[in-house]
Amino acid sequence: MKETVLGIQVNTENYDELIEQIFQRIERKEKSLIVAINPEKIMKAKEDPALKKLLNEAEFQIPDGIGVILASKIQKGQISERVTGVDLMMRLCEEAATKQKSIFLYGGKPGVAASAAEKLKELYPGIQIAGIQHGYETDNEKVISKINEAKPDILFVAMGSPKQENWINANRDQLYPTIYQGVGGSFDVLAGNVKRAPKAFQKVGLEWFYRLMMEPKRIKRQMALPKFLLEVVRNTKRN
C-alpha cells in the first residue's frame, strides 16, 4: 500500500512485508527500484518536477526519515515505522544469503565496495556476492558489461541521491538485475569509514540529531524538517 505525503508516494509496509514483496518480484523477474524518502527529498521534489517524477515512478518508496512518520501521523495515515535505506539493504542481504540470491555492489571510492563486501561475508555467511565495482570508472558500458556478466539478482548503487537513482533509471533496461536500490553512503558504513548514530538514537528516530551534533554545518539541511511539517499541517487543513 502507498500513502501520499505532499505529492510523493510512500510505502506503508514494514521491513518484513517489504522483504516478502521484493523477493516475490525477484521470482517473477519484475524489475523494481527502491528509493528512500525523507523530508528533504520531498521538499526538493516540490521545486523539481524531474525529481518528483523519479520518486513517484519507483516501485518502492521507503519512509526513511522520522519526519515522514510524523507527517503520516498528522494526516492520520498508515505509516507507523521508519524503513531506513541502510537497514533495508542489510535485511535484503540477510534474506539473499538465506534464499541464495546474489548481489552486486557498485559505487564508492576505490576499495570501499571491496571492504563492504568483506563485511557482508562476515555478517551473512554464504552470501553470494556476484561482483563489485567502484564508482570512479568513467566507461559506463564497461560497468554495465561487468554487472551483466556477473548476473546478480540485486544491485546496490552507492553514488548519493538522486544521482544513483538517475543512473539506475537510465540504464536498468539494459541491466540484468531485478532489484535496484540506491544506498548512498551505506558502503562506507559497512567498510567502517563512517559511523552510524548509536542504537539509542536510531531507535527513537534521532539519527538526524546525532549527525547534526557531529556536523553542525548540516543545520541548513536540517531546517527542511520544520518547514516540511508545517507544510504537511497546512496541506492537511486544506484537505
Describe this structure in words.
This protein is an alpha/beta fold and 239 residues long. It has 2 domains: 125 residues, no CATH class; 96 residues, Rossmann fold. It is 53% helix and 16% strand. The protein is built from 13 helices and 8 strands. Strands 4-3-8-7-5-6 form a 6-stranded parallel sheet, sandwiched between helices. Helix 6 links the parallel strand 5 and strand 6. Helix 2 packs across helix 3 and helix 2 packs across helix 13. The mean pLDDT is 92.
Distance between the termini: 21 Å
How would you state the average pLDDT, rounded?
A: 92
The proportion of residues in beta strands is 15-25%
Supply the number of helical segments: 13
- Label the overall shape: globular
- Strand pairing plus helix content: what structural class? alpha/beta
> Largest sheet, described in full?
6 strands, parallel
* Extended strand count: 8
**What is the number of domains?**
2
- Work out the helicity level: 40-55%
